[in-house]
Design a protein that fits this description.
InterPro entries: Na_symporter_ssu. Keywords: Membrane, Transmembrane, Transmembrane helix. This is Sodium symporter small subunit domain-containing protein. It comes from Roseovarius aestuarii. This protein is mainly alpha-helical. The protein has one domain. The protein has 3 helices and 2 strands; from the N terminus they run ααββα. Strands 1-2 form a two-stranded antiparallel sheet. The two termini are about 25 Å apart.
Length: about 90
């Protein structure tokens, strides 16, 4: 495998990870918090309904989880492709 093939594989995996993370965040924040909110309004969570919870706290919590997931996965990807910092 040439150096260019290795770089392409690394960046393909990186972009795939970014796209998956963005799709998850969009589905949670826009989908559950806005589009599906009327369907989720009957499910109680912490004194409010699930749709409101996703719109106010859920999307932020999922975003923070995605940040840590992305950092963890990128560290593994860096190690696999020999570009890690350690």
């Amino acid at each position: 495998m040439s150096q260019n093939d290795g770089n392409n594989a690394y960046w393909d995996a990186n972009v795939r990870l970014i796209l998956i993370s963005l799709v998850v965040w969009a589905v949670v924040s826009f989908g559950f918090g806005i589009i599906l909110r009327p369907m989720l309004s009957g499910i109680p969570v912490g004194g409010t309904d699930l749709g409101f919870w996703f719109a106010q706290q859920g999307s932020i919590i999922i975003f923070l989880i995605l940040i840590f997931f992305y950092a963890w996965r990128m560290n593994k990807l860096d190690q696999q492709h020999g570009v890690d910092e350690e």
